[in-house]
Amino acid sequence: MFINGEWIEARSGATFEVTNPATGEVIGVVPDGAGEDATAAIDAAHGAFRDWSRTTAHERSRLLYRAWELMTERSEQLAELMTREQGKPLKAARAEVKYAADFLIWFAEEAKRISGDWLPSPRPDQRFLSVKAPVGVVAAITPWNYPISMLTRKMGPALAAGCTLVLKPAEATPLCARASYEVFIDAGVPAGVINLVTASDPRPVGEVFTGDSRVAKLTFTGSTAVGRQLAAKSAANLQRISVELGGHAPFIVFPDADPVHAAKGAAALKFLNAGQACISPNRLYVPRQHLQAFTDTLCTRVSRLQTGNGLEEGIGVGPLINDAAVAKVETQVEDARAKGAQVPVGGRRITQGLHAHGHFYEPTVLTGVTAEMNIYREETFGPVAPVIPYDDPDEVIALANDTHYGLAAYVYTRDIGTAMRAFEDLRFGIIGINDVNPTSASVPFGGMGDSGIGREGGHEGIAEYQETKTGGFVI
Ligand code: ADP
Question: Per-residue pLDDT for 354 more than 90?
């Protein structure tokens, strides 16, 4: 763990092992922190806040810029570590490190754009000034599916704004967190400004983060169930919160779209990170007249995907993070099958030969999916593409919106009016129009409804770490 500028063991001396989800081999051992370690980390962040919040925006920008340079220089080692620890194919891991570094340079630039307003008063002898102040100590909890970019997406803006922080990474991916911290440390971050607590059981650390009134803000990315619990606890201390949670993205093919092109997009998008992404499409709505063409292309593409250890050449889909993740996928597919879905591709665990010690599930296509099936409403977080035929393009937006989640949605159409109407009527925070990657460090990322509160990235990303301060001056 990294507390007050030093790499240390847990107070208890306990450790836990980190395993490779593709092979089952142990790839590292890290300190197993508890509540007392979380408190020590908050002590350090609290102690460092005064000096750090008084640095100039230019100093903070330089630190982030240097961190961007170092992360870029180390991208190959970081990507390999990510593949070994999290499982995604090396090419995808490289893309994630690039995305992670993008947040560092974006917020290095945003740091220098923090400004305020000089506001009018109705009184001739009065002037108003409104400025942005860092919110204070930030507690961050991050997931395993994007184990480096989810850190920089929080640490970049927190540091740019002048906040100090404590971070607990997911128990499956502490090594990526450690390697990311080394980037900041080598870039020269002062002691106490960033602190890292690793733990096999997240609950005691979560209790301390949400229960300590010195923590001004909680930023969390993970499941809706855990985000809801943490937000409720944070409320007792009136901590500011950003929670980026689950999703159930619709992917709508309109009748005017080319179904072959759309199916290629769906195949590329759905199997990224083995489907373990909150913006992964979970309902593919296809007009009945295009069903054959769309499904044929999708099945051809999916059956070509090779599943295995992401360090090997040609692997398109890696393992799932653990056995519970495979079991969840299996349960959803069996439920759909029992209720009448067809499974033209995939539909089984892979347990033989080279796959014997990993958590693998075949890339799968389900057709004839209906609203009665669990997969129609539950997030899958696995490599399964559920195809849902529809008849009426006027109703498909209502079908797409019929979810408590509201993170990402995708639309295929060549008609500008259809595109605009879909963009306006879909109740989601991120919408890709003929675009399977509508994300970037430069744009806001976040959802509506059960998908969370707050936005990361873009101009809004830094605002989440700031308070507004108003001054009245009588002259
Ligand atoms: P996922 O299902 O994607 O693993 P989780 O919400 O369980 O999502 O995990 C996301 C992050 O939240 C991880 O860092 C995990 O350790 C943490 N987490 C899970 N449960 C709790 C909890 N009760 N308190 C604090 N953090 C938690």
Answer: no
